[in-house]
Amino acid sequence: MEFIRRHSLVLGLTTLIAVIVLLLSSSDLVFSSGVSFIDTDLQKASGKEVYVETKVDFGSPEHMANFPKEIGDWIGQDYDTSKWEELLGTEVMLMRGYTRSGYYGNPIYLLIMQAKTESSFHPPERCYRVAGYDIQEESREVVTLNKGPQSESKFPHPVPMKKLVVAKETNGVIRERRVVLFCYVKGNQFKTDTITMIRLESLAPITGSYEKTLNREKEFFAEAFPYMFDSGQRQDWHPIAMALIERGIPGYLAVLSIVSIPILILLLPRTKWGEHKQHGPHEG
Q1: What does the pLDDT look like over 69-102, one tens digit per residue?
Q2: Which of 125, 195, 265, 275, CA to CA, is 20 to 30 A from 135?
Q3: What's the domain range around 145?
Q4: Is the residue at 216 inside a domain?
Q5: Any idea what DSSP says for residue 239?
């Protein structure tokens, strides 16, 4: 307490600034459970993350089961995931192969899985190696959202994703090659500790360019994105202080309590208790 009294001015002003910044911050950061961010790294922020608002509950088996099987001219077919849910300890998993109507090429496999622990998410780089694949390429990609039946939602930023090109050999000869795009959706840290992984995968030509496969995956994701997300940025400014006040008397009391902390620190040396401590006991 003596430390607080001696440095009350610095501590009080610092706390006051922090309180003002907090109360003037966007209320979405705390009160909105739908606001999340998409990123390519599981355990840290890459610096390229984008904020979104989820349209579906990735933690709901009903929402996942009802996720559209028809997206534009893409038609989906479900695969059984019960074995993987038990093995990985995930709460919800969707695995579906989408094929474009009238197109007889390889399907694009969409995987959506959610869990409350990062240990359930073995990085795809590790999973493919364990499954016998060699990683030929590893890089970052972005998907520009300029297509799709719900393009009026107009998401302003490209979505960051990580790309893997993996191949499996038999007796030194490549028998299979796949292009993989994936990202993580991390929820509002004030509301949830769940993490969702979205992964796209498709077979590619064994040799030569894989650009057509990559572009098809990007096109599909651009069309599927509006069914999952919308922009996480509000058009109007709605600070935390206003959100609290709108809750009535409890909100007013909460704002008053928060603001009173730095004020009390600043006034501490001027109180009788502070003056008493400063001058010490009277010696007769």
Answers
A1: 999 999 999 988 776 666 565 666 799 999 987 7
A2: 195
A3: 34-231
A4: yes
A5: B
Classify residue 194 as left (phi > 0), alpha (psi -120 to 50) or beta.
beta
Token output for 24: 């003037």
**Structure-token pair, residue 199:** 């992964």
Say what the pLDDT of residue 262 is. Answer: 77
Q: Considering the domain boundaries, does residue 284 fall inside one?
A: no
Closest CA to 180 of 109, 269, 74: 109
Give, in order, the Cα–Cα distances in Å from 57 to each of 113, 164, 168, 201, 217.
12, 27, 35, 22, 23
Q: Regarding predicted confidence, which is higher, 122 or 223? A: 223
169 found inside a domain: yes
> In this structure, how many other beta carbons lie within 10 angstroms of the beta carbon of residue 6?
14
**Same domain? 216 vs 106:** yes
Question: What is the per-residue pLDDT across 242-268, written as a single tens digit (0 to 9) for each?
Answer: 777 777 888 788 888 888 887 877 776
Percent of the chain residues past pLDDT 70, beyond the cut: 74
C-beta separation of 68 from 229 below 8 A: no
Give the amino acid at 167.
Answer: A
CA angle 209, 174, 212 (to 5 degrees): 20
pTM of the predicted model, to two decimals? 0.68
Which of the residue ranges 37-46, 48-57, 79-88, 221-230 would you say has the lowest mean pLDDT? 79-88
* Cα–Cα distance for residue pair 100/106, rounded to 1 Å: 9
Ramachandran assignment for 213, one of left (phi > 0), alpha (psi -120 to 50 degrees), beta (any other): alpha
Closest alpha carbon to 261 in 25, 5, 15: 15
Whether residue 188 has pLDDT greater than 80: no
Closest CA to 35 of 192, 183, 159: 192
Q: Are residues 224 and 247 in the same domain?
A: no
Q: State how far the Cα of 86 lies from the Cα of 89, in Å rounded to an integer.
A: 5
Identify the pLDDT of residue 33.
47
